[in-house]
Amino acid sequence: MNRKLRMGMIGGGKDAFIGAIHRIAANMDGLIELKAGALSINPEVAEDSGRSLFLDSDRIYTDFKTMLEKEAAMPAEKRLDFITIVTPNFAHFEPAMMALDKGFHVVIEKPITFTLDEAKQLKAKVEQTGLSLLLTHTYTGYPMVKQARQMVANGTLGKIRKVWVEYPQGWLSKLSEREGNAQAAWRTDPKRSGKAGAMGDIGTHAFNLAEYITGDTVEKLCADNHIMVPGRLLDDDGAVLMRFTNGAAGVLMASQVAAGEENALKIRVYGEKGGMEWAQHEPNTLIVRWLDKPAEILRAGAGNPHLSSFATHNCRTPGGHPEGYLEAFGNLYRNFALSLQARIDGTEASKEALDFPSVNEGVRGMAFIDNVVKSSASTEKWTTFEI
Amino acid sequence: MNRKLRMGMIGGGKDAFIGAIHRIAANMDGLIELKAGALSINPEVAEDSGRSLFLDSDRIYTDFKTMLEKEAAMPAEKRLDFITIVTPNFAHFEPAMMALDKGFHVVIEKPITFTLDEAKQLKAKVEQTGLSLLLTHTYTGYPMVKQARQMVANGTLGKIRKVWVEYPQGWLSKLSEREGNAQAAWRTDPKRSGKAGAMGDIGTHAFNLAEYITGDTVEKLCADNHIMVPGRLLDDDGAVLMRFTNGAAGVLMASQVAAGEENALKIRVYGEKGGMEWAQHEPNTLIVRWLDKPAEILRAGAGNPHLSSFATHNCRTPGGHPEGYLEAFGNLYRNFALSLQARIDGTEASKEALDFPSVNEGVRGMAFIDNVVKSSASTEKWTTFEI
Amino acid sequence: MNRKLRMGMIGGGKDAFIGAIHRIAANMDGLIELKAGALSINPEVAEDSGRSLFLDSDRIYTDFKTMLEKEAAMPAEKRLDFITIVTPNFAHFEPAMMALDKGFHVVIEKPITFTLDEAKQLKAKVEQTGLSLLLTHTYTGYPMVKQARQMVANGTLGKIRKVWVEYPQGWLSKLSEREGNAQAAWRTDPKRSGKAGAMGDIGTHAFNLAEYITGDTVEKLCADNHIMVPGRLLDDDGAVLMRFTNGAAGVLMASQVAAGEENALKIRVYGEKGGMEWAQHEPNTLIVRWLDKPAEILRAGAGNPHLSSFATHNCRTPGGHPEGYLEAFGNLYRNFALSLQARIDGTEASKEALDFPSVNEGVRGMAFIDNVVKSSASTEKWTTFEI
Amino acid sequence: MNRKLRMGMIGGGKDAFIGAIHRIAANMDGLIELKAGALSINPEVAEDSGRSLFLDSDRIYTDFKTMLEKEAAMPAEKRLDFITIVTPNFAHFEPAMMALDKGFHVVIEKPITFTLDEAKQLKAKVEQTGLSLLLTHTYTGYPMVKQARQMVANGTLGKIRKVWVEYPQGWLSKLSEREGNAQAAWRTDPKRSGKAGAMGDIGTHAFNLAEYITGDTVEKLCADNHIMVPGRLLDDDGAVLMRFTNGAAGVLMASQVAAGEENALKIRVYGEKGGMEWAQHEPNTLIVRWLDKPAEILRAGAGNPHLSSFATHNCRTPGGHPEGYLEAFGNLYRNFALSLQARIDGTEASKEALDFPSVNEGVRGMAFIDNVVKSSASTEKWTTFEI
């Protein structure tokens, strides 16, 4: 391929946290360039944001429909390859469907849609159009998460028995949504965020991580969600007992009122022969404990001969040069880009490049929200995981 | 007081793990001397063990009844002050009751008895005799656990919202009870261990730690116990959702099949203003995270002006000279001994010395086992914590 | 500014480690675009590399002189803004001088030149031309390093007494330069690397970090360098006692034969009131210990109110989303770019943007190499730090 | 042996830090009983201290000479086996010589004597009398330190190249000796402490640890000591470059003005094949890094099959039940006691029991002080390590 992929962005104007992250992730490896944007519904913000990102003025839009219409009509040598959607949850579905209809590949910030039903429709649309969709479950972009998955897949730990995944944050310990915190406002608002609060925002990440590493699926669950801060409208805390299809038992904990915690996603997986521990705050380390030998510290790093190809493919630096959240995010974009390049070039993408979250993960994430909300309200212990 | 307290021991012969630990804990501070023992029902082991501990030959016994009879008849200047019982769980109750009846104070390894009913009888006996009983829930002997409790009690964290307590071990990852491991054999045997396996052995420690630090009680719970190793007779793994009386929500995880883990008890407690984290494998550190200022690392140490008197009272060394499990155990014995000294001297023991686990903790621990086993078998989500 | 800055690159063809790092760092924030390159003296590699980076074919060069000539002649709307030089050490000086002469700003990988004398000439040239030069001492791009510097500058720790800086790597534990390792080959070759091996490659980073954080300068030193692997031509290990101008005493340790270590740069600085510890392998944390209160854990994060503006300016994500080596590198480029933008726009760059390493650091680094080599060969204890 | 060993103590009255530590260490394993003491030269303190330790009133002395005279005249069944000397440094030699002359084995707190010359005389006396002497270099009592030593001895790391040992404390960051801190007062007083301050108090521990683990000896050194706190009379900080007999290079750092540090002794040793890291604040872990495989975490624990017999012999608990400083101290006493038991019983002590520091370590420690003080004052780079 002799050019960068062309990206358009919906949402992500100035001061929107996640839009900036997507742009860094897309920029990082020099495979993608931002060429157009409907960055805000506020015309002034859209214009300012577009200019500060050096967009051509005729490719700065104020509504996504116009953008998709006009960009679809561009000649091939200018036309966007894909659209990144970083609007609040309630505004994912419509632009995603339209983008696919117009022939663009799509990147969506998670959760994929506002409702499970939308997620299923979107999945059907992707399958029908044959286009590619990346759902940015960032944490599965970390090399040591991929290493963990491969070790389970290879049977290195034996049959998996236990999964403990936890995601404590503390930033919603106060009623910040009433104190001018815009992030807090939309994330705790059922009309913009969806059925669940913490469980949707971070519980889904923890759930995705657990299914990704184990290569297994949750079969039934028992949830206990809470609104810990009086006056809040959605859960800000919860815990879920889980049973996996292949027999493992799990616990998922997610909280946004774990006062003082930043973003301390962590997972432990135990099998017959050993266990693994990975924590996002020190993401380049995977501790592996064994029944019959001393624990080992596996470390991320390009060229590390002790790691699987899925891990090293997602490293840019040798061991000891820490890569972080933005690189994990960048790995999603890079793999998505490599797979699009292969499509465009008519070659076959590597299995490592094809390993990124998409509509299946999106549907399961939305189903997780539904099932957890249902279970939490139920007096029955177990709720079957339904899609 | 002008002499050491005199201890007799039931159980704890050669090669018994916990008996040796009790002796180290009792020896450490020079307040107690072992003077008699029915260390084994095997006469040869009893004799060998007693001699290696330098007991007078006439105070080496082979059954506890004889010991209690004869020792009770000794003159005051020789008579034992208290009896330590370190037999397997099923053999706690009878000697404990008899010791109390004979006028001896009692130390019992946890769980206090084989059944909840026995625990209640023992509690009644203690109350009736007015004697003192120490239940060795070791982990509450750590200075930083006491610090955590005081910080909650003082309201430093505000109202408590979340409690996460976990206790992973890996030593039962195989069916070791069939491979000649004596510890595994009795602990997984319902006839010697009781109704529960992991939940009784280590779940009760986690439960006790959670109630001790929060100063709160579990009101209802939802348990999911497992036998992960085929052929095993008691649970080797489980998780429990908990609701506390004052409104906090909790999760308790205990596993003896967390392959590769040693003894990784850890607790996190979050309130409105901050959260705390304590882990037994690095017990001299208490990390306190705050909503409004940087996290702090509190460190155990005699004379540390940033700690409560309950913490410093239980330190023997200045900061940076790590104290461990044996010192925590020693703290239980030391506080028990100080409180007995005060009784004997007719003085008042300090509140710090009186802070050791006793019959109430024993009854609640046995009730925890009953309620967890009941809940795990139930299709109802919530089981009210009944005693 | 209404466009990205235009970068040309000298060196950094396919498989060159550091060239790829520079490109990621330059790409990351969307402020810079690579427009031309003399990426290799091997025409085929140059061509291949240029194409894979999507350069226009007429801006792919095989020698830097041609590139600088031709690019200098380009019209303003196409002309490069700056040149990045990522050739081996011996090939920094000539292209840097020529680039400055042609009116380009310059980025150079450290060490700045092959000899101290060249460094001084380059410094004179920069001063004479008034152009800007960035020397990529990556580690001073980390937000928590900047935080540490500000805390010293603000007197938060009181007068500084001690500096311990260490940089263990293990990758040269074998005679890899004879086993086909190209990185090892040039870095251990006096003709390409310079007078010093480990002390030049990583000792200079440690030295720069110590002077940057303390805001002080080394006044005299006592070095003990070693060649630990028989057959090697340059030092692979060493230690240096240091005295700082303001009275602090320091120790610097650098080794490339610390078998098993990755890239474990770490610094500790102690003053009258407290001490700080920062380690590159967990770069988002700065531990601050105090004489009179509990130790604190400062954490990187955009918007963290407990950090100085120099730290937060260099964060892209909120706390708990780890940023790493590439972001630190990206901070150097970002600040360099922001300062160039200000120049071009005729505005004033912020003090935070102007805080990047340049020719002074380059000259001091080369002087460090000279002084350390001289001291190590001397029987005198102290060698005055001369430039 | 059918009785506990009988200990007498010189020094260590109420409020003396180290005396209490020695008693806990001696008590812990039930092999030793304190029977007599000249605990203070202040009669009231001596009496009070003795009574609170339950000594018979006729074995509470106020001067050590009387004690040694009277106790030497006791009948065999009452006579002390050994004397523990825990007076300040200047008062070690005289009682130690006299105790040996009277036929008692001896335990001395380090440093062994006030001067090197005394140390040599004491060594000669021990050799002449054939009695046993324990010098309490506590840190070599830790199981993972013994593990480290065995791994070096077994060649597991290959030839040793690097030794980095550091001992930061912060408690002398102020001029506490003038503010009523008795510990600070004698330790910074040349008349009571000796030629060196920090280098004598903690530098000797670091030095001993380095020589113990490597099994090697320092051949020459280059020291840079400092008095950082104005008004102090002895060094409170220093660093030493070292060359070992077998070719390794080392750095030793010791400071008592590393503000905020507790007692952070740490050592790293690197050989051709790998490196090890041990830190006293988390003493049950030994991290071993390898050139050719992932790093391993070795953990202390009775029965751990991955450890040498020297390590497991010095563990009392299974892995995950942290043992600390007091147990390390207790290991010195336990091994000393086991070796005395063997002597008394006419059997042979195990090689593990015989592994405790004695007069050779004492002489080398005193020589370290002399050589470091000499080197620090010298303008020559290297000072040959002379005894």
TrEMBL record, chains A, B, C, D:
InterPro entries named among the record's database cross-references: Gfo/Idh/MocA-like_OxRdtase_N (IPR000683), Gfo/Idh/MocA_oxidoreduct (IPR051317), GFO_IDH_MocA-like_dom (IPR055170), NAD(P)-bd_dom_sf (IPR036291)
Organism: Chitinophaga caseinilytica
Superkingdom of this protein's organism: Bacteria
Domain GFO/IDH/MocA-like oxidoreductase as annotated: residue spans: 145-276
Residue intervals of the Gfo/Idh/MocA-like oxidoreductase N-terminal domain: 6-134
Protein name: Gfo/Idh/MocA family oxidoreductase
